[in-house]
Every structure is written in structure tokens, then in C-alpha cells.
Amino acid sequence: MAREMVRQGGRSARIQAEVHRTVNELLKEMDRGAITVPMVAERAGVTPSTIYRRWGDLSDLLADVAVARLRPVADPEDTGAMRSDLEAFVLQYVEEMSSRVGRQMLSDVLGTWEGDAAGQCCQFTYQHLETMRERALQRGEQAFDVSEAIDFIMAPVVYHILFGDREVTPDYCRSVVRRFFRT
Questions:
Q1: Which tens digits make up the pLDDT trace of 95-110?
Q2: Class of the 72-182 domain?
Q3: pLDDT, tens digit (0-9, with 9 covering 90-100), for 114-163
Q4: Where does residue 23 fall: left (phi above 0), alpha (psi -120 to 50 degrees), or beta otherwise?
Q5: Which helix (H) or strand (E) covers residue 55, if one does?
Q6: CATH class of residue range 10-56
Q7: pTM
Q8: Which residues contact 129 (CB under 8 A, 6 or more apart)?
Q9: Domain range annotation of the chain
Q10: What is the number of other CB atoms lying within 10 angstroms of the CB of residue 160?
């Protein structure tokens, strides 16, 4: 399916902002299963065809909104040491993503194969880990491998958040970081 080219700024950016705002409002007001493209379009003041042309379907739109909400607004906390930086990052990530809203955003991002929502969210995590790795090098600490941090820290945490097979407690998060440094 051909997608309209999205220009930076201008009418296209205003439409995207209004549609995102509308979706976020609707998600606060009702269960996501009750939301429809025509409902979003009417409230946002656009035609349903605008939404279908730009996002494809409701799941792609929800994924795009989730990516926008997951986009980092700041660098990870600098605690002064690599290990405590990683612990603080994982604890904050779990606090945000294990909430009902966080789990739903993860589900929205993973619920679509169109676009690159999951890849964008992965990139956010890679960038944060790279920031922490660079800080460690600047402090004279032995840096970690970012891909290994994804495999040994983030992957099990995200798995348990998504599948809810265990409570992802602060103690569990600290143990994952501790095990990572023993490898």
C-alpha cells in the first residue's frame, strides 16, 4: 500500500499532531477496543481516508502514537558510575513499562508489522545504552557492549513485562544487572 510522503512542518505536521492528540484523548476516555478510525477522524477534523492513507489502519496509528510517547525526552540519569547508571535506567524503564499504560504502548508497538515502530523503540533503548557506555568511557571505566546489554538485561525484562509471567521487581532488575557484570 502506498503511503503519502510526510513533509516536515506545515499542514502534514499539524494533521499528525492533531490526530495524535485525539488518539491520546480517546485512550484516556475509553477502552481502546472501542476506538475506530472514523471516530478519530471526526474528532481530529480530518477524513478517515487521511488516516488510512497516512497510517494504513488503526493498529498502525496506535503504534505511531505509542512510538511518539515512548520517544525519550532526556538522557538517562548520570549517577556517577556505569553499574548504577544501568540499574537506574532499568528501574525507571520497568516502572514506566510495567504499568497498564506502558504495557499497552509496548503491545501497540509490537502489534503492527507495517512501518518500523518496534525498530524505532529499540533504537531509543540502544541510544540510551550508548550514552551510558560513552559516559563510562569518559570516567575511565571499562565500557560494556551495548548489544550484550540488550541481550542480557533488556530482553529478559521486556519479556517478563510483556508476558507477565513474573513480577519485575526492583530486586529482580538489580539481579539482572549484577549477572550482566559477572559475564
A1: 999 988 888 888 888 8
A2: mainly alpha
A3: 668 888 888 999 999 999 999 999 999 998 999 999 999 999 999 999 99
A4: alpha
A5: helix 48-55
A6: mainly alpha
A7: 0.75
A8: 89, 146, 149, 150, 154
A9: 10-56, 72-182
A10: 17
